[in-house]
């Protein structure tokens, strides 16, 4: 549980440069502290915690039950590992198979500090790159643990048969990703997420066959059950029959992914949502740094209003592709092959000579926007603006040969050709930033436990490891680290107190949760509105992208909050849900998700308004250098913003967890 030492709120007479833009939108709360993180030498802290964590003996494990929500890399690996340890595991996903979790869409690779290339990599360098890449807004202890555990992940996956790319001599190959100067990314062409998920799925199914894990597919979590202050179960909706079902356990683990779809257009699968974590937030779990969202620089540009999602092109393409725009606006309509070399602006190589095209995602994204804002974007006009830059492989094909490029990126090139109708082997790809990953999520301590005892959160659903910006190829690393190696060692400390008392079906907390779920469904089905769910989602996404997207301002965020509040009020009065609640009903599913997105969107804007600094993926126009780079304000904002739900009509409560750096010096990021 968080430390509850009370401190006085900040003075209302703070200097003007430290004025609280979000004053009046929230209530200051008590500070919060991670009481589980060990002290001592950095490289010994994880070993110390593993030893200090209590153990549930094998006989007791057979009587201890765990619910895991989500079957992506984090959820599938956690369920498999806990099942193999002897716990009774119930695994839930809304897909028709665990193999369809969105982790399957990850393309480029997974980081690990193996130093196979002998280029100076190490656990400490991975730790340092991650801290720096996150713009010094993550915890030292958590990030170092992630770097330590990374080395075990590759061995685990190779043992499962994951077909990582190999060099001619048979050794595992590596490539580079943005934000680093070493090659530490293991990959399987452009299908790394799919291959890793198949490995985790096999481990999960092995435990299903052994009887320790039971999978519930096409079941969506719609509420968390908290009894006597502890997470003890969930309420789900059978998405085929519409039946509302209740499941109990000694502990609940959320591995339900991120909330990037609050922007409507994103690289996430259409089904990705925030409901599992938002329901937990409303029950007392703090939401940390919700405004820290990542804009991925390498996506196929928007082509019009007909689109419902965007397509990611792996960041690994930046290893061999060169990013450029025409130097002259008049050349933007030309065939790129007709633009002379001296008339091309390889702007990342020009601005950041040390890292070039491999700068971190937030920097690459922001510079792409700047080029297009200058009128040098390429591709078709959408609403009067060309939103695209070139990703050109001509030099790499000439240097390495087409066959070598096909071997490394063939499926990505094929995907681009099918979507755009253009051949990337002969014509440069067109790319533009899009919403991709979220660094924010439910607040967890070093054990991955939230402010609700018995509720653990892993993978993208928590905030813990990436700070204000995630380095490429680190999502898969964190998901598998949490699932295979971290959670199993920390959850046992909590379960050592079990088994816990059985929960009665008519317990008041259970009945209250069931009633709330049914009332919500009844409202949607009986509401006599005229607007579709998707129309509200698209409008919310437009607000979020315009005012809380790649660039944020005080005036824009205030406007967004007002617009979201008006839109949410209209949603509850005027949304129209067709069909029946007692059957397959995708309109009803989306209604519940969009209702939660509307509340989340407002909190994201308040969080962004409160943080009057630029760091990582959060860029406040009021806080930038003369060169247009992000300007942090460490003396004011070196903290985790942990938000507490205060009720539907009350402002959220802000709890601050101070970030203390003992082993890394905080300084302005430079990739030049």
TrEMBL record:
UniProt entry keywords in alphabetical sequence: Cell membrane, Electron transport, FAD, Flavoprotein, Membrane, Oxidoreductase, Transport
Family: Belongs to the FAD-dependent oxidoreductase 2 family. FRD/SDH subfamily.
GO process terms (BP): anaerobic respiration
Catalytic activity: a quinone + succinate = fumarate + a quinol
Species this protein is from: Nocardioides islandensis
Protein name per Swiss-Prot or TrEMBL: succinate dehydrogenase
Domain Fumarate reductase/succinate dehydrogenase flavoprotein-like C-terminal: 537-671
Bias kind Basic and acidic residues: ranges: 31-43
Subcellular location: Cell membrane
Record SUPFAM superfamilies: FAD/NAD(P)-binding domain, Succinate dehydrogenase/fumarate reductase flavoprotein C-terminal domain, Succinate dehydrogenase/fumarate reductase flavoprotein, catalytic domain
Region (Disordered): 1-43
Annotated Low complexity bias: 1-23
Database matches in InterPro entries: FAD-dep_OxRdtase_2_FAD-bd, FAD/NAD-bd_sf, Fum_R/Succ_DH_flav-like_C_sf, Fum_Rdtase/Succ_DH_flav-like_C, SdhA/FrdA/AprA, Succ_DH/Fum_Rdt_flav_su, Succ_DH/fumarate_Rdtase_cat_sf
């Amino acid at each position: 549980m968080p430390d509850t030492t009370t401190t006085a709120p900040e003075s209302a007479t703070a200097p003007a440069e430290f004025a609280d833009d979000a004053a009046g939108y929230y209530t200051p709360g008590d500070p919060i502290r991670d009481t589980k993180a060990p002290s001592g030498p950095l490289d010994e802290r994880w070993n110390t915690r593993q030893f200090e964590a209590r153990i549930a003996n094998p006989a007791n494990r057979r009587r201890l039950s765990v619910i895991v929500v989500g079957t992506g890399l984090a959820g599938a690996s956690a369920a498999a590992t806990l099942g193999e340890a002897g716990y009774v595991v119930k695994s839930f996903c809304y897909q028709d198979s665990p193999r369809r979790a969105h982790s399957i869409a990850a393309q480029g690779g997974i980081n690990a500090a193996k130093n196979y290339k002998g280029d100076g990599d190490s656990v400490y360098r991975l730790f340092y790159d991650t801290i720096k890449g996150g713009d010094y807004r993550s915890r030292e202890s958590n990030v170092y643990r992630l770097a330590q555990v990374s080395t075990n992940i590759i061995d685990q996956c190779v043992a499962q048969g994951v077909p990582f790319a190999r060099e001619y001599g048979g050794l595992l190959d590596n490539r580079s990703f943005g934000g680093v100067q070493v090659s530490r990314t293991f990959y399987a062409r452009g299908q790394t997420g799919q291959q890793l998920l198949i490995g985790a799925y096999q481990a999960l199914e092995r435990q299903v066959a052994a009887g320790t894990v039971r999978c519930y597919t096409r079941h969506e979590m719609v509420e968390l059950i908290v009894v006597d202050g502890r997470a003890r179960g969930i309420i789900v909706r059978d998405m085929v029959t519409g039946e509302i079902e209740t499941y109990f356990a000694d502990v609940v683990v959320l591995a339900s992914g991120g909330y990037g779809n609050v922007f409507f257009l994103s690289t996430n699968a259409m089904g990705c949502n925030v409901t599992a974590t938002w329901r937990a937030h409303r029950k007392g779990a703090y939401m940390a740094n919700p405004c820290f969202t990542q804009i991925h620089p390498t996506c196929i540009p928007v082509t019009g209003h007909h689109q419902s999602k965007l397509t990611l092109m792996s960041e690994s393409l930046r290893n061999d592709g060169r990013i450029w725009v025409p130097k002259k606006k008049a050349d933007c309509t030309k065939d790129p092959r007709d633009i002379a070399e001296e008339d091309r602006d390889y702007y990342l190589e020009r601005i950041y000579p040390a890292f070039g095209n491999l700068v971190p995602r937030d920097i690459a994204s922001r510079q792409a926007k700047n080029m297009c804002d200058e009128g040098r974007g390429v591709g078709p006009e959408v609403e009067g603006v060309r939103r695209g830059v070139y990703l050109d492989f001509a030099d790499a094909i000439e240097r390495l040969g087409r066959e070598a490029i096909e071997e490394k990126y063939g499926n990505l090139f094929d995907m681009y050709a099918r979507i755009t109708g253009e051949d990337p082997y002969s014509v440069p790809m067109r790319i533009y930033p899009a919403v991709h990953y979220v660094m924010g999520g439910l607040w967890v301590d070093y054990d991955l436990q939230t402010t609700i005892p018995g509720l653990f959160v892993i993978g993208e659903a928590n905030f813990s490891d990436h700070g204000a910006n995630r380095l490429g190829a680190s999502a898969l690393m964190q998901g598998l680290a949490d699932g295979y190696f971290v959670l199993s060692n920390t959850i046992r400390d909590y379960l050592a107190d079990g088994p816990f008392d059985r929960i009665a079906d008519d317990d008041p907390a259970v009945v209250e949760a069931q009633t709330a779920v049914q009332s919500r469904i009844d409202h949607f089905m009986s509401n006599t509105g005229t607007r579709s769910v998707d129309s509200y989602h698209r409008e919310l996404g437009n607000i979020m992208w315009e005012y809380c997207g790649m660039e944020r301002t005080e005036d824009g965020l205030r406007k967004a909050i007002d617009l979201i509040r008006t839109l949410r009020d209209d949603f509850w009065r005027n949304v129209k849900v067709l069909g029946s609640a007692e059957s397959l009903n995708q309109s009803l599913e989306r209604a519940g998700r969009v209702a939660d997105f509307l509340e989340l969107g407002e909190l994201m804007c308040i969080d962004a308004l409160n943080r009057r600094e630029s760091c990582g993926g959060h860029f406040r126009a009021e806080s930038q250098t003369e060169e247009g780079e992000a300007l942090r304000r460490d003396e004011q904002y070196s903290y985790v913003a942990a938000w507490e739900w205060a009720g539907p009509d009350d402002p959220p409560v802000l709890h601050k967890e101070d970030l203390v750096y003992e082993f890394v010096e905080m300084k302005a990021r430079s990739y030049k």
